[in-house]
């Protein structure tokens, strides 16, 4: 597998937003389909990337493969205090909007993206990492547990009525 993790490039903003929406739709993560208000948030890659440039502690990373650098996955990393950190407490990082194309699954793409977030947290001197995920996304739960995350039930939350997200957390060594 020839996968590289790097910051998203401006020319990729639209494609990364559409990748997020397509994967979230296919996985049943958008409650009302394409019209889900969260789809608009997923598509705002430029806004998240521009915040990173202004040092607002949110970064959009992509997993690319091959010499043409085809985007096969993406994640948004943020630290406490970022507008994109929903669960992070002081001293913690958080990742969200993790998506991997179907053909990239089972090949280590998701793991590489999470590892990059953990490395980013270490580089910033953070002590922990947290994430939230729908409770029915079992393959993701297995990945998080394999990477040292544990359920943090006290941090579960409901972003909208009827949608409960499970929290996972781990220390960053």
Give your account of this protein's structure.
The chain is α+β, with helices and mostly antiparallel strands and 173 residues long. It has a single domain, classed as Aminopeptidase (3-Layer(aba) Sandwich), CATH 3.40.630.30. Helices cover 31% and strands 31% of the residues. Strands 1, 2, 3, 4, 5, 6, 7 and 8 form an 8-stranded mixed β-sheet that branches. The longest helix is centred in the last third of the chain and has 15 residues, at 109-123. The chain starts with a strand and ends with a strand. The mean pLDDT is 90.
- The dominant shape is globular
Contiguous helical run count: 5
- Our count of domains comes out at 1
Provide the gyration radius in Å. Answer: 15 Å
Helix content: 25-40%
What's the assembly state of these chains? Answer: single chain
The CATH top-level class label: Alpha Beta
Uncertain parts? none
Distance between the termini: 26 Å
| CATH homologous superfamily identity | Gcn5-related N-acetyltransferase (GNAT)
Order of helices and strands: EHHHEEEHEHEEE
Number of strands: 8
Percent of sequence in beta strands: 25-35%
């Amino acid at each position: 597998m020839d996968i590289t993790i790097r910051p998203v490039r401006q020319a990729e903003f639209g494609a990364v937003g559409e990748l997020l929406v397509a994967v979230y739709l296919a996985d049943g993560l958008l409650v009302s389909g394409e019209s889900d208000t969260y789809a608009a948030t997923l598509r705002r890659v430029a806004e998240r990337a521009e915040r990173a440039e202004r040092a607002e502690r949110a970064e959009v990373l992509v997993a690319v493969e091959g010499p043409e650098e085809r985007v096969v996955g993406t994640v948004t990393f943020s630290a406490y205090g970022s507008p994109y950190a929903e669960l992070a407490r002081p001293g913690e990082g958080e990742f969200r909007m993790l998506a991997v194309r179907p053909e990239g699954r089972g090949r280590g793409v998701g793991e590489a993206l999470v590892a990059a977030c953990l490395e980013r947290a270490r580089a910033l001197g953070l002590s922990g990492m947290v994430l939230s995920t729908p409770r029915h996304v079992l393959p993701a739960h297995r990945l998080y547990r394999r990477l040292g995350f544990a359920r943090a039930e006290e941090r579960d939350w409901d972003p909208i009525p009827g949608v409960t997200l499970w929290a996972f957390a781990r220390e960053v060594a």
